[in-house]
TrEMBL record:
Pfam families: Mito_carr (PF00153). It is found in: Mitochondrion inner membrane. One of its GO terms (molecular function) is transmembrane transporter activity. This is Solute carrier family 25 member 48. Keywords: Membrane, Mitochondrion, Mitochondrion inner membrane, Repeat, Transmembrane, Transmembrane helix, Transport. The lineage of its organism: Eukaryota, Metazoa, Chordata, Craniata, Vertebrata.
Length: 311
């Protein structure tokens, strides 16, 4: 069991695709709240998006994450599981029960997964946010924009994911695809520690000692709670990341992470960093519950196990 296993990547892909479908509508609401203007609270934002763009507005930009986040989650879960397995083998714990985990191993495996996730996830998040935000009426908030920028605000600047990638590379270079990478590192490395670690320990806590593995219900509950914890605590850096990545559609306001934090704080106060925390936490539960349940059940089906394994 200490060897590299591809099943974790396959199961992560299935879980990732399922979680995108479940979570994208609230992800759109979260992005609009954090980087947009005139949306008020969560319910007001939902009403505004529905009124302006109908139900399809909530699924704007979903095709790219559906294809890419499935691969992204595949890599994250594959890296986490294989790193944890390698650490257990290295420390000579292969023969111990599969539910036996040490905090240090989980912490290191989560951090490795977090760093790897940033390399893959930054361009994915950038494209998703640009597509979600391009109907945002920036001209209302930036009256000093040049006439061309105001005119661009009338119609979408990007025609789809491929056109968005081509436009960013042409106007900002390849480095433009990694706009907000610093904020994403600060969000995802601790974020994945607060994602995988609570999941593993909640699973062990919920599952009775007599059971050989957690039930689907336990996986769903532990996964949902872990997602709510992770996304709730990640909100401040998620706000900064969203603003940095939405920046550049019509104009560039921020020079970097610290400048974005400074400008946001000066204009809107400390509360701005907790904007979207409700929708983040609420969205985190069904998304992560679906992600972990899809992952665990897929892994069970691939391996032909009779119990749901823990990563």
């Amino acid at each position: 069991m200490g060897s590299f296993q591809l099943e974790d990547f396959a199961a992560g892909w299935i879980g990732g695709a399922a979680s995108v479908i479940v979570g994208h509508p609230l992800d759109t609401v979260k992005t609009r709240l954090q980087a947009g203007i005139n949306y008020g609270n969560t319910l007001s934002c939902i009403r505004t998006v529905y009124k302006r763009e109908s139900v399809f507005g909530f699924f704007k930009g979903m095709s790219f994450p559906l294809a890419s986040i499935a691969v992204y989650n595949s890599v994250v879960f594959g890296v986490f599981s294989n790193t944890q397995r390698f650490l257990s083998q290295y420390h000579g714990r292969e023969s111990e029960a599969s539910r036996s985990h040490t905090l240090s191993d989980l912490l290191l495996a989560s951090m490795v997964a977090g760093v790897v996730s940033v390399g893959l996830g930054t361009p994915v998040d950038l494209i998703k946010i640009r597509l979600q935000m391009q109907t945002q009426p920036f001209q209302e908030a930036n009256l000093g924009l040049k006439p061309r920028a105001v005119a661009l605000g009338v119609q979408p600047i990007y025609q789809g994911p491929v056109h968005c990638i081509a436009t960013i590379v042409r106007t900002e270079g390849l480095a433009g695809m990694y706009r907000g990478v610093g904020a994403m590192l600060l969000r995802d490395v601790p974020g994945y520690c607060l994602y995988f670690i609570p999941y593993v320990f909640l699973n062990e806590w919920i599952t009775p000692e007599t059971c050989t593995g957690p039930s689907p219900c336990a996986v769903w509950l532990a996964g949902g709670m872990a997602g709510a914890i992770s996304w709730g605590t990640a909100t401040p850096m998620d706000v900064v990341k969203s603003r940095l990545q939405a920046d550049g559609v019509y104009l560039n306001k921020y020079k970097g992470v610290l400048d974005c934090i400074s400008q946001s704080y000066q204009k809107e106060g400390l509360k701005v960093f907790f904007r979207g925390i409700t929708v983040n936490t609420v969205r985190g539960f069904p998304m992560s519950a679906t992600m972990f349940l899809g992952y665990e059940l897929s892994l069970k089906a691939i391996r032909g196990d009779h119990t749901v394994p823990s990563p």
